[in-house]
Amino acid sequence: MKRREFLTKTGTAAAAAVAASALGAPAVIAQPKYQWKMVTTWPPNMPVLQTGADRFAKRVEEVSEGRMKIQVFAAGELVPALGVFDAVSDGTVECGSGAGYYWAGKVPAAQWFSAVPFGFNPQGINAWFYSGGGLQLWEEVYAPFNVIPRPQGNTGVQMGGWFRKEMKTIDDFKGLKMRIPGLGGKVVAKAGGTVVLLAGGEIFTSLERGVLDATEWVGPLHDLRMGFYKAASYYYYPGWHEPGTCLEVMFNKKAYEGLPRDLQLILDTVAAETNLWSLCEFEAGNGAALQSLIADHNVNLLQFPEAMMDALRKMAEETLEEEADKDPMSRKVHDAYKKFKAQVGIWGTVADSAYFKVIADEYQLKKS
Amino acid sequence: MKRREFLTKTGTAAAAAVAASALGAPAVIAQPKYQWKMVTTWPPNMPVLQTGADRFAKRVEEVSEGRMKIQVFAAGELVPALGVFDAVSDGTVECGSGAGYYWAGKVPAAQWFSAVPFGFNPQGINAWFYSGGGLQLWEEVYAPFNVIPRPQGNTGVQMGGWFRKEMKTIDDFKGLKMRIPGLGGKVVAKAGGTVVLLAGGEIFTSLERGVLDATEWVGPLHDLRMGFYKAASYYYYPGWHEPGTCLEVMFNKKAYEGLPRDLQLILDTVAAETNLWSLCEFEAGNGAALQSLIADHNVNLLQFPEAMMDALRKMAEETLEEEADKDPMSRKVHDAYKKFKAQVGIWGTVADSAYFKVIADEYQLKKS
Predict the structure, then answer these.
(1) Same domain? A74 vs A173
(2) Which of A300, B6, B60, B109 has its CA 20 to 30 A from that of A147?
(3) ipTM
(4) Is residue B217 part of a domain?
């Protein structure tokens, strides 16, 4: 009903504009409208994740002078969270928002475009996408499914997770029931853990009841909101399993290719702008949330022991090679990822890493 | 001549479109055109810096369906490099591209929006701009000059510079003739150095002839191109004086406010997209260039000694306070900068810094 009413009004406006043109008055012509639907894997109002998708849609509308309008549906409102890729692929909707590792069952190589254990941080993965051929490769991976991907966000380096016991050696992973998705989960399984997959809404209760011994989520901004500190008191860093998770927007190929070139570029440009904005939101919000967790909620903030990181890193390398061997596209992506990592890695060591070392003592963490 | 010809053609097309509308045919109405000029502080074709300004203009034209066209002039082509701010301010041109510290003589507080010694890295300064109130403050600083600023690029953490002798202690700065701009230069002066200001084209010869003992420029990608390795063999890191220099695009207030809202947002969005792209270009290019400098040109890559960093950092804090005391706006900006730094700093230590420590040994630097 509403849509029909809208179209009628638009038609009237266009007719009026045409009439005005014929009379030589200043023309305000109603352009053809594109009405799209976007489905996401995020709960309604989830900060940065869902609000970032909302922001993307709003800005596309503004920048396109209203020629394009995207209606956003959170997880479950139109399709289930994990049905997003299929809905975009089969053209049920024109676009979707999620993260590559959610489609690992159907597109194993997609995982490399979201998070790789001990892989790129945000700066590295963005450089790979925009200046190192990563985005073209990602397009190639999604092409058989008629889906066109774009980076749309980045969580930054995540936290290592919430644990109900202190983690002293790599052996503490043996028998540990942990909620952890993607390639990181496969590494935990290799270390002897039992990997549990749960949707966001079920994690807290499972952790509180001891069904889970540990969980990872995102970073302080989101973890504080989830209340995990009430169910587990050890909060570990850094998030070796997701050191710069990329969030994606996906377009149905036919829908995207049916747009005029300037609207395609508006989608691409606003996606990149949202990508940058989201990392800034995480960066600005995580610090304050972490301080609140420590000061107000008495969380034990702990760094994973070095020997444990070394062991997990070795297992991660093995895991990545094993996963890459399972299908040719994963192998192609993994090799390209490694090649670019070798190219930029030395620079990260000299620039960012050395600089962080210089300013390291500036911020003393209050440990309980 | 060309402009007139263009306007005539546009007029004809618009008339034809109006005629077509009157007949009920699909309307392709020529919108009002905005023809702008952009002047920059960069030499022609300088990678990322000038090519980034060119890319910005091209994308604005594409995204706006050609409604807006920006003609870009490199340094000296229309106004001198350091005349960019004034040209935008007085409306000689509608926009410009540069970096805040170039206008320190006229707008001291502008320096905080480009590079602060021992200050934000790219992730931190972007978070301040987009999610921490930094951009609004920057707008306030430029408002009296009728200039509207937007972040348009970031060099990433820079290199510490090229030195003709090894730098062992803070005393080695005494009497050192170094080319280094901005607040970093003031710190070197405090350490006893003689700060020399030279435009890009004059640095190499001065360094080769010993008129300079040292110079900083940007990072490996640009430094390799400048050939500094032929004149100084010690290449130091990290760039404590410019740990994430922001490049800016500026709009004349009247020109910007005369645009329809969607074109204003196109400028803003493309500026942010260019900001992200430029950091990616630096990230992707610096690693390969650094490896070439070490492997092909036998450069001595050295890290500044810890004690020297500690001493410079102390001097930087003093310098920043002294500069902030010189005018009320600088004080306001410096205090806001420090406040946001305290908010995000703890997070950088936990997330990025700890993660870099974990992967630090992945890339062994070849030292000569």
Answers:
(1) no
(2) B60
(3) 0.89
(4) no
